[in-house]
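Collaboration report, partner site 2.

Our partner group contributed sequences for two proteins of shared interest, and the home lab folded both. The records are reproduced in the order in which they were received, starting with the first partner submission.
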Amino acid sequence: MQVLPFGHKVVGMQQMKDLLDSLSIWSGAFVVAVVSGTVVWLLAWMFPALRKLWVVIVPFAVAFCLYWSPVWLGNDPSEYHAWAGVFIVPWFLAGAIPAAAIVYILQKRSVQ
């Protein structure tokens, strides 16, 4: 691992792949929920007309990318196809629920 000035470290591809491989269904769901909630909040604030669309698209995109990113970084894809639904669907739901709550709160606040 390369060390930059002021003690900052550069994370390599192998370290990123190891981090992604270490995610369980629960830790991945937490990551998807936090990232989806944050991104949906920003997009719903910037593009209020598309709020309901962001609730579906953002969590699916985050879950899909999080699941397949180890393959994109070089892992063998042979087993990933068989397990895709087991991980992507719960991760999507874990992101869609807080995203829907955020959109609901933003809609209530914009009416007032």
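Second partner submission, folded after the first:
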Amino acid sequence: MQVKQISRTTGLYTPLKLMLAGALLGLSGSVLASVSVDEGLNACIQAAKQRHQGLVTQWDINKGPAGVDFDITMLTPDDTRWHVDCRGDGKIDEAKQLFGGASYSILSSRKTVNEMSARATAVGVYNNATMVRMTYTVSGLGKAYYHYYLATPDGRYAQIDVNAESGQVDSTRSERGSSWW
């Protein structure tokens, strides 16, 4: 399995082949040979958006017995939250409505940078790290952030906060041990 690396110097999004390190997920290269994790994630996001128009407020990348799958949380214009389970090939397994939520109008009005661009920015911060989760929130001060959670090859867990208005990394932190998310 060949893993492509993101260039930190150019900041290019070199089709973000996050072929999730075999050590982290315990998967063989053949499981992900036809579809990279990033391509699968993007396919799942598109499928979720086709089913429920709105904003992606969270995604998680999971290891399962059948390979990689994704959990996508959507917020629709009527402030309804939806949880979508999706396989690595972009096919939706299940979608269910969640209770409680945020305001679509507030979240949608605060972002000018799309999630894929923010993801490309975040992935360049820690070399060879594996993305595990993204959440999109608005802080108490009204700033919108994409929060990315990564696992690094040296056993650390990292959080990168990308400002959804500027596209710049506002903060980052990492620590060893079990994940805090």
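Feedback sent to the partner group on the second submission included the following. The helical segments are 22-25, 37-51, 104-110, 115-123. The first helix runs from residue 22 to 25.
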